[in-house]
Specification:
Blueprint: E1 6-9, H1 15-28, H2 34-43, H3 46-55, E2 60-65, E3 68-78, E4 81-89, H4 98-109, E5 117-123, H5 127-135, E6 139-144, E7 153-159
Parallel strand pairs: 4-5
Antiparallel strand pairs: 1-2, 2-3, 3-4, 5-7, 6-7
Length: 160
């Protein structure tokens, strides 16, 4: 991980800033249709994320540098695997290794969470995310055509 980027569990105080960054990332995503964007925005509210943090301190992860928060991940512990629901990087901080730093941070927390695997999905056309997952040891396990929100996805996994 880059020494100028740190990754850690979010605090309750940071939740509004994380939600704001998530909504900006979501708004700019060309890979999601409008229905998906609407529904995803409704799922990841400040109230929802605060509850998640109370139940699982690792469920909201943030990346930061000297300028402040620059990335996030939302995860769910599910039967001894970690599901990455979302991860994103502030548009001004992209192409600096922030996404990989976040993924590496999640990998480091897996033993604490007693997880043996991390898995997630990406849109088939999301080349930056696909490259980040490959770079960090994930392998493609399936393609799902016409799946969530009528869109095509790839499922990924990485043993830890």
């Amino acid at each position: 991980m880059r020494s100028d980027i740190s990754v850690r569990a979010a605090t309750q105080r940071e939740v509004p800033e994380v939600v704001s960054m998530f909504l900006e990332v979501l708004r700019l995503i060309p890979y999601y249709n409008e229905l998906a964007k609407h529904d995803e925005a409704a799922k990841y509210t400040a109230s929802n994320l605060r509850t998640r943090l109370r139940d699982d301190a690792y469920s909201v992860t943030v990346a930061e540098d000297d300028s402040g928060l620059i990335g996030f991940a939302f995860t769910r512990f599910d039967d001894y695997v970690i599901w990455i629901e979302w991860f994103g990087v502030d548009p001004a901080s992209r192409r600096r290794g922030v996404g990989s730093a976040i993924i590496q941070g999640l990998i480091r927390t897996a033993p604490t969470r007693k997880a043996h695997k991390i898995w997630c999905d990406t849109r088939i056309t999301n080349e930056p995310a696909k490259a980040t997952f490959r770079k960090n040891g994930f392998r493609q396990i399936a393609k799902l055509k016409n799946h969530w929100y009528g869109q095509d996805f790839i499922l990924w996994e990485r043993p830890v």
